[in-house]
């Protein structure tokens, strides 16, 4: 079946968004600024994105009748998270343009397939091996060595679906803790810092990257992002070129993020790819207040078939995630000159739940 024809949207058109979390909320807010409407499709009745959109559909991602009605109301469809079922994306793509392409979604949903894709591009990653049985686990440990990180191939984020295996640990116990699911074993990387590049690619193939961000995680959840990253100009250039190469290889349309490690090997430092997120990303939230265009507006421009903006950073920027009950202390941030508070309108705070973020821009 041929794909539906795509034409650049005009103000007043409707963009469908799969997923109703904070990323969908901020995408919809960016679309509204450009005179575009959004229709959110999500199974959760309390999705925080519902509050800022014209229309919302609450239904399971397997509900074909609901999906068909959703598609008929949209001019183009995108998503705010990468774990949309592949069948859902394919069903919608037969009816309306879905961007980024569902094939990219399927590729990045599997950590092993993603790593193989990156390796074929001659882009360095941590050493890795597939684990699908006890025998493969033993072979992987022998090949990779310990310490190493065992990760489920699918449905892992914010530290979920992974287990650290140190010397002396029982690898089988770690695998059983993950339900003996198909996994990938990655060599543990001692890194100087973690960085990410958020890049946008338009339908005509042009790529615009934001400045390299330096990220700090706490309990496997992103806690702070600082821009520019404290790395050399050569390392920053390498990181941006990697993200742009991946976007082009995907024939990508929209915003994606590439998470990387800067590792030290003797006197030399290298940039390794960790993971790819085919969507707007938490480490790009600083762009809302610290740049002339946000990652959310850039994504909307791309999927709408519009010209991308040229991002220009407004100063040194720091973004802090408000996780769980930290959001209850929002008032202290309101009193800090130059602090921009973003609360996502979610329900009661839960441990590990991202409730908002704060951005500070330092122009001197």
SS-based class: alpha+beta
Q: DSSP helix count?
A: 11
Q: Give the number of DSSP strands.
A: 17
Q: Class of the largest domain in CATH?
A: Alpha Beta
Low-pLDDT stretches are: none
What this model shows, in words?
The strands form three sheets. Strands 9, 10, 11, 12, 13, 14, 15, 16 and 17 form a nine-stranded antiparallel β-sheet that branches. A four-stranded parallel β-sheet has the order 3-2-1-4, sandwiched between helices. It has a four-stranded antiparallel β-sheet with strand order 5-8-6-7, sandwiched between helices. The protein is of the alpha+beta class and 364 residues long. Strand 11 (213-218) and strand 12 form a beta hairpin. The chain is globular, with a radius of gyration of 20 Å. The longest helix is centred in the middle third of the chain and has 18 residues, at 233-250. The chain folds into three domains: 14-98, Rossmann fold (3-Layer(aba) Sandwich), CATH 3.40.50; 127-187, 2-Layer Sandwich (Dna Ligase, domain 1), CATH 3.30.1490.20; 191-362, ATP-grasp fold, B domain (D-amino Acid Aminotransferase, Chain A, domain 1), CATH 3.30.470.20. It has helices spanning 22-33, 64-73, 86-93, 102-108, 111-120, 134-144, 171-177, 233-250, 287-290, 295-304, 330-334; strands at residues 14-18, 37-42, 55-58, 76-79, 128-131, 148-152, 162-165, 183-187, 191-201, 207-209, 213-218, 221-227, 254-265, 268-277, 316-323, 339-343, 354-362. Helix 1 (22-33) packs across helix 10 and helix 3 (86-93) packs antiparallel against helix 4.
């Amino acid at each position: 079946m041929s794909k539906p024809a795509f034409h650049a949207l005009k103000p007043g058109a409707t963009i469908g968004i799969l997923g109703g979390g904070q990323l969908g909320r901020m995408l919809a807010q960016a679309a509204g600024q450009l005179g575009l409407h959004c229709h959110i499709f999500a199974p959760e009745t309390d999705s925080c994105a519902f509050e800022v959109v014209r229309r919302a559909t609450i239904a399971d991602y397997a509900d074909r009748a609901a999906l068909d009605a959703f598609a008929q109301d949209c001019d183009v469809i995108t998503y705010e998270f990468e774990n949309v079922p592949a069948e859902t994306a394919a069903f919608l793509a037969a009816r309306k343009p879905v961007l980024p392409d569902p094939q990219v979604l399927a590729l990045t949903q599997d950590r092993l397939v993603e790593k193989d894709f990156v390796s074929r591009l001659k882009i360095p990653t941590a050493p890795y091996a597939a684990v699908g049985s006890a025998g493969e686990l033993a072979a992987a440990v022998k090949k990779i060595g310990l310490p190493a990180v065992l990760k489920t191939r699918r449905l892992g984020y914010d530290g979920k679906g992974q287990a650290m295996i140190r010397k002396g640990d029982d690898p089988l116990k770690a695998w059983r803790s993950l339900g003996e699911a198909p996994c990938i074993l990655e060599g543990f990387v001692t890194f100087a810092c973690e960085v990410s590049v958020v890049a946008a690619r338009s339908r005509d193939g042009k790529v615009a990257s934001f400045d390299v961000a330096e990220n700090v995680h706490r309990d496997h959840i992103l806690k702070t992002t600082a821009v520019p990253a404290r790395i050399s100009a050569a390392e920053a250039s390498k990181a941006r070129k990697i993200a742009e190469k991946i976007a082009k290889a995907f024939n990508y349309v929209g915003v994606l993020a590439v998470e990387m490690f800067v590792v030290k090997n003797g006197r030399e430092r290298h940039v390794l790819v960790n993971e790819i997120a085919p969507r707007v990303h938490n480490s790009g939230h600083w762009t809302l207040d610290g740049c002339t265009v946000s990652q959310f507006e850039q994504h909307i421009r791309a999927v709408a078939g519009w010209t991308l903006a040229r991002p220009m950073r407004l100063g040194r920027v720091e973004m802090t995630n408000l996780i769980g009950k930290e959001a209850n202390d929002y008032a202290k941030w309101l009193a800090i000159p130059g602090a921009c508070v973003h609360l996502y309108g979610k329900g009661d705070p839960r441990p590990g739940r991202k409730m908002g973020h704060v951005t500070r821009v330092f122009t001197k």
